[in-house]
Design goal:
- The protein has 65 residues and is mainly alpha-helical.
- It has one domain.
- The chain has two helices and no strands.
Length: 65
């Protein structure tokens, strides 16, 4: 016997079959997840970008000195 489909599967594949309450709950949850994903990517970019410029610059200064 197979497992019932997951809630994510129902919301993404069969969005048109959801009730209005289920759609609203899914959209609220998905919006929150998208915001969290965006902020984590932004934090990673803000951390990595300066490091990729600072370390080579310091290395060049030390090597030239």
């Amino acid at each position: 016997m197979s497992d019932p489909p997951s809630h994510d599967h129902l919301c993404i594949t069969h969005f048109d079959k959801l009730t209005a309450d289920e759609r609203a709950a899914f959209e609220d949850e998905r919006g929150g997840e998208e915001y969290e994903l965006f902020t984590s990517h932004l934090k990673a970019a803000v951390t990595v970008s300066p490091a990729s410029f600072v370390f080579p610059s310091v290395y060049a200064l030390v090597r030239a000195g």
